[in-house]
Design brief:
about 325 residues; alpha/beta; three-stranded mixed sheet; 12 helices; about 35% helix; globular
């Protein structure tokens, strides 16, 4: 395992995490004002409260980086005038934690303040390459992504400037068919993760889409800059709507597809790499059943995504919290 001391300053790797505390009354008032009377913004797939609820997943996200990727140079947490106060949690769990810097939306949207406030990740991630001091190579996290096993730089980047991610290619014509047969919910089709990725492929004039999984994604800052330069309309596409919309694209996908155009994307199988958990209140034993193999000694994969933990059955959620406490004892 590479230790933090072995990381060379000439070629560092940073981590970027998007985070929001949806229970903050000041933030909630700002969000409600942006919604106005538009009831569609309260849909779970667009801007419902569930999308913004947090149960301190940010602690596990940052703890996982410290424990399993200690060679990361700096962790940037992108927020809207908020602070997770990690000094009260993760800061006490590790003797020498990786430095954390809070980056406000106003910093990355400098020159584009007309789009603020904004309440969807597609627009925010379009701007993350503008973080002052960000390294050329960085890894993009959601706050519900957790590293569960050791990760080396070579799991995300090659020595000759390529990025590595885990997923598969799919022709856009197949994605069109899947969208056509996608069932409606309350009379409308949900705005989905795959839709955002296909939108990206079409924006860049490609006929196939790289289907990413729910895991941290390696990115190159210069490709974010290149997207701005070569596709200037991308900013308005992703930032004009305050909440998630069907026209938006995925900035991580854009970074990967641009790398692919330059022969700098390596696609690997996600099998055995990611544990994706999506509990619901009516699935009482969901988390227990999915975690049981790992409780019985099966090695954890490198990446885990715990999606919408707040809606899990309370007893099931308690099992998960105990599991995480064992993974990051404090």
């Amino acid at each position: 395992m590479i230790k933090a001391d072995d990381n060379t300053m000439c070629d560092p790797i940073d981590a970027v995490i998007l985070w929001v505390d949806g229970d903050d009354p000041v933030w909630k008032a700002k969000c409600d004002a942006a919604r106005g009377g538009n009831t569609l913004t309260r849909r779970d797939d667009i801007g419902g409260d569930l999308r913004f609820r947090q149960m301190r997943e940010i602690d596990w996200c940052v703890a996982g980086i410290n424990k399993f990727a200690p060679w990361i140079r700096r962790i940037y947490i992108v927020t809207d005038a908020q602070d997770p106060h990690l000094e009260n949690t993760v800061g006490k769990w590790f003797e020498n934690p990786i430095p954390v810097e809070i980056v406000d939306h106003k910093i990355i949207f400098r020159g584009y303040e007309q789009y603020l406030p904004i309440f969807q990740s597609n627009g925010i991630e379009t701007m993350t390459h503008r973080i002052p001091g960000l390294s050329e190579r960085f890894v993009n996290f959601n706050d519900d992504f957790v590293l569960c096993n050791y990760v080396e730089p070579e799991d995300w980047f090659t020595s000759d400037g390529k990025v590595i991610d885990y997923g598969k290619w799919m022709p856009n014509i197949m994605l069109d068919f899947l969208h056509a047969i996608k069932p409606k919910k309350n009379g409308l089709k949900q705005v989905g993760y795959k839709d955002m990725m296909e939108n990206t492929s079409r924006l860049l004039g490609m006929k196939r889409t790289f289907l990413m999984r729910h895991n941290p994604h390696p990115m190159l800052k210069t490709l974010g800059e290149k997207l701005f330069k070569e596709y200037p309309k991308c900013i308005d596409i992703n930032c004009r709507d305050k909440f998630r919309g069907a026209r938006q694209f995925n900035a991580q996908e854009a970074n990967h597809l641009m790398a692919a155009k330059e022969g700098r994307l390596i696609v690997r199988s996600p099998k055995g790499k990611t544990l994706f958990l999506k509990p619901f209140a009516n699935r009482r034993f969901y988390l227990r059943s999915h975690l049981k193999p790992y409780m019985n000694g099966k090695p954890l994969p490198q990446f885990m995504c715990i999606n919408s933990l707040a809606q899990a059955d309370p007893d099931d959620r308690e099992v998960f919290l105990n599991f995480m406490h064992n993974l990051f004892p404090h």
